[in-house]
Write a structure and sequence with these properties.
The complex is a heterodimer of chains A (167) and B (628).
Chain A: E1 10-13, H1 23-33, E2 44-48, E3 52-56, H2 65-69, E4 75-77, E5 84-86, H3 96-100, E6 107-109, E7 114-116, H4 129-133, E8 139-142, H5 144-161
Chain B: E1 7-12, E2 17-22, H1 25-31, H2 34-45, E3 59-63, E4 76-82, E5 89-95, H3 97-105, E6 109-113, E7 120-125, E8 128-133, H4 142-153, E9 159-162, H5 165-168, E10 176-178, E11 181-183, H6 188-194, E12 197-203, H7 213-226, H8 233-238, H9 243-250, H10 271-278, E13 279-283, E14 293-297, E15 307-310, H11 312-318, H12 327-340, H13 344-359, H14 384-396, H15 401-404, H16 407-419, H17 444-452, H18 465-469, H19 482-498, H20 515-530, H21 536-556, H22 568-572, H23 587-601, H24 611-616, H25 620-626
Parallel strand pairs in B: 1-6, 7-12
Antiparallel strand pairs in B: 1-2, 3-4, 3-6, 4-5, 7-8, 9-10, 9-12, 10-11, 13-14, 14-15
The chains are: A alpha+beta (167), B alpha+beta (628).
Chain lengths: 167, 628
């Protein structure tokens, strides 16, 4: 059973649009580490059965399971943005948060030995860099309610006036 | 050094050991990466004159300068060995994650020597090399092998280049597959099979740093945006299969073993039809913002569920070229090739040769006896089910499939010797490699480009058809400009194949694909990645050097002017229909154009390379061995 997402915005991927290029991973790792490395990206692409492709980042769950799972109380969720923050003084790399996340959106940094997840590029005015770069506009930064609204509108267009093919 | 690690990894399959070779920066500046560096490594590590299947033929993998960076379409590597198809350089390119993983693992190139006693999966785990028993992977298809290795290693970031059953069986035109992409031509899979090398897997966990990331990010972002516009719409929307109708209109769509250039069934095997009826998803290589691969599926009937990526070259070879106008059969044929790891172009053209040989009553039903058809079967043009059966026989080397798995040159020579026939006249090959899907009878400049190609006739290594099709020259006539045109087209392509960058990006730098439109941005990309200070003219030298090292390799392997040939049909047997009907390239025309080409290159009239030419390119050691 997947944890429900929340009132917070998060980086969402439309698997129909995602082509699996991984540019989001390059851009994320560069933004965070000044190097290009998928292993250090906080958004990860997944591809199975050749044609099933998507990208996943922290979904800013309400009452986030990772926060609850942390035995050291090292994780804290920002009440306004939903961003999960890791206290480096408390995190001991036990990786319980990694296990607690149904989306596989948390990873351990082998160098710093700290848990890492998407922080919405909160320090950058233009917001998440992966969204900015995505060549196919497969990524968007929104709440699940906004996502649902978008889906409804797209469905309308598709069903009623058949504009899906026209893009 | 930025962009490179300065290290080549050498692996010995027999001794099960590895060592590191340090290369100076000057070496990288000359050979850059991709096909140029892979060929150079082949030049350095092969025993000249060796049998391509012997332990003396190395497998040389050279990464790209931009692999692992956000430079669009820069995730590619070159693969080179002596080709079992041609006996000359076999240089291929493949896109996607394998190159990126290799870059992150810390290697610019890998040279694999000798032969293993038992089937092996070489696992490059950052700095570590492990020789893993590959017995459990035998018989698995290419995609299946990659997945199985990821499962064995419990890491979905492990990327593998593999061979399938065709490579294990040493089908001469077997290829190497990674991430659903192929180093497709010239028979690398057979070379790997001869070494009992089932797969090379890589896990690279290190970050890639570049000299000037701000500039590189800015350039890459702009190109990524530009790549969503009109300059790539052909590739993004229908993929290369859109060529079917274009080529048909020009009378250049190889039909029924290249007898004609127009196909009455083109409409139902067109890119448009494919997209509307069979497209599942359009996917990209790693690092590519274009996405051209049309994953296509058979939706019903006996081949329901057969799925693979469809591109023009494989489509023409297994569709119009076999007289087949039903895409269900075409997709199935290409998926047999892709999943078992063989070159769908050479496979299709070998089947079309067999179809014509059957039509001329040299082959009979009996020749096609196999387990599933004990009485054999008819092999008429247009018979998709028979073509699929034959493709499976080739894959398994069953019955006559064993002979056909050697490609058209060996198959035709063998039959002609046995039966006193002249089937070689419709064996579509030059240097032993089957040609591309642009009929050169209606493209005189491309006829020249095809004949002089170092790996055989190839649309990717020489887009000499551009000047023909765009009307820069009269495509049905020969004139004194063709040598320069062929040289330009070949060296232009060589730049992309060496960096390597996928050529589909070529109009996205400034809107213009020519040198003036592309080189300034390419210079900026290289310099921002490496910190070098290359100039415009250095880019030309990169292309020139790439062609030269490949030619030098061939010369050392015994190349002679007569090897720059064309399939007999293109020289003697005109088409009867369509706008290109009535034309061939005569021997006189071809020899005249070859004179022009060698002259444009600054080579001798015999096509050999003068010492000073090589020294000018900084290839003194090559000059010593083959310069005249």
């Amino acid at each position: 059973m997947l944890t429900s997402t929340s009132k917070y915005q998060f980086v969402d991927c439309d698997p129909d649009k995602c082509i699996g290029c991984q540019l989001c991973e390059y851009v994320c790792s560069y933004t965070k580490t000044h190097e290009y490395n998928s292993y250090r990206s906080r958004i990860r692409t997944v591809r199975v059965e050749e044609v099933l492709i998507t990208a996943i980042a922290c979904r800013s769950c309400e009452n986030a399971p990772c926060v609850r799972a942390c035995p050291k109380d090292a994780l804290e969720q920002d009440e306004n943005t939903g961003i999960i923050r890791v206290d480096p003084a408390k995190c001991d790399a036990c990786a319980w948060c990694v296990e607690a996340c149904d989306f596989g959106a948390i990873s351990m940094n082998p160098a710093t030995k700290l848990a890492e997840m998407c922080d919405h590029c909160e320090d950058l005015e233009e917001g998440p860099q992966c969204v900015k770069w995505c060549p196919k506009e497969a990524l968007s930064f929104l709440t699940s309610e906004q996502r649902a609204q978008q889906s409804r509108r797209e469905l309308m267009k598709e069903e009623v006036i058949g504009t899906k093919a026209a893009g | 050094m930025y962009g490179y690690h300065g290290k080549v990894l050498h692996i010995d399959l027999k001794e099960k050991k590895h060592w590191v070779e340090q290369k100076p920066e000057e070496w990288y500046k000359k050979y850059i990466g991709g096909v140029s560096m892979a060929t150079r490594l082949c030049w350095e590590n092969i025993k000249p004159g060796c049998d391509p299947y012997s332990p003396d033929n190395p497998v040389c993998i050279a990464n790209g300068i931009f692999a692992g960076t956000p430079v669009p379409v820069g995730g590619k590597y070159g693969l080179a060995s002596k080709s079992p198809m041609t006996g000359f350089i076999g240089d291929s390119l493949s896109g996607s994650w394998f190159s990126v993983a290799l870059k992150r693992a810390g290697w610019d190139a890998v040279v694999i020597h000798d032969t293993s006693d038992t089937w092996v999966n070489v696992f490059i785990d950052d700095e570590r090399v492990e020789f893993r028993d590959a017995t459990s992977l035998l018989g698995k298809g290419t995609f299946e092998t990659e997945e199985a290795i990821r499962e064995q290693l419990h890491d979905d970031q492990v990327r593998s280049a593999t061979i399938g059953p065709s490579g294990e069986n040493m089908v001469r035109f077997a290829n190497v597959t990674n991430d659903g992409r192929q180093a497709g031509r010239t028979g690398h899979g057979a070379v790997w099979g001869s070494k009992k090398l089932k797969a090379v897997s890589v896990r690279g966990t290190h970050g890639v740093a570049v000299a000037d990331p701000d500039t590189l990010m800015k350039l890459s972002f702009n190109i990524t945006r530009e790549a969503q516009g009109p300059h790539t719409s052909k590739y993004r929307i229908l993929g290369t299969s859109t060529n079917v109708l274009n080529m048909n209109k020009l009378g250049l769509l190889p039909t029924r073993n290249y007898r004609e250039g127009v196909f009455e069934g083109a409409e139902t095997v067109s890119g448009e039809y494919l997209h509307e009826h069979h497209n599942v998803k359009t996917i990209a290589c790693a690092q590519c913002p274009i996405a051209c691969e049309q994953m296509s599926v058979v939706k019903s009937g006996p081949y329901e569920g057969a799925m693979t990526g469809i591109e023009y070259e494989c489509l023409f070879a297994n569709g119009p070229n076999l007289g087949i106008s039903d895409l269900d059969y075409v997709i199935k044929l290409i998926s047999v090739a892709d999943h078992s790891g063989m070159d769908a172009m050479s496979m299709g053209i070998t089947i079309s040769w067999a179809m014509e040989t059957y039509e001329r009553k040299i082959f009979t039903n009996e020749d096609f006896k196999c387990k599933s058809h004990p009485e054999g079967f008819p092999l008429n043009f247009g018979d998709g089910a028979s073509a699929v059966s034959l493709a499976e026989m080739i894959r398994d080397r069953e019955g006559i499939g064993a002979l056909l798995s050697e490609g058209t040159r060996i198959a035709s020579r063998t039959i002609d010797k046995e039966r006193g026939t002249e089937t070689w006249k419709w064996a579509m090959q030059s240097k032993g490699l089957e040609p591309a899907g642009y009929d050169a009878r209606g493209l005189k400049t491309f006829a020249l480009g095809s004949s002089v190609g170092t790996r055989g006739p190839c649309h990717n290594r020489s887009a000499a058809y551009d000047v023909d099709i765009q009307g820069v020259v009269d495509r049905f006539k020969v004139d004194e400009t063709r040598g320069e045109h062929a040289k330009d087209a070949e060296e232009y392509a060589a730049v992309y194949d060496t960096l390597p960058l996928c050529k589909f990006i070529r109009r996205c730098f400034t809107g213009k694909a020519d040198r003036a439109g592309a080189w300034p941005t390419i210079v900026q990309l290289i310099n921002a990645t490496t910190g070098w200070e290359l100039k415009y003219e250095d880019i030309d030298a990169i292309g020139s050097r790439a062609v030269t090292i490949k030619k030098a390799f061939n010369i050392r392997e015994g190349w002679k002017r007569a090897d720059d040939a064309l399939p007999w049909r293109w020289m003697h047997d005109p088409m009867t229909k369509g706008p290109s009907a009535g034309y061939v390239t005569t021997e006189e025309e071809l020899e005249y154009m070859k004179d022009l080409y060698y002259k444009a290159k600054g080579w001798t009239n015999d096509g050999l390379i003068p010492k000073e030419n090589l020294i000018q390119l900084g290839m003194e050691d090559v000059a010593e061995q083959i310069g005249v």
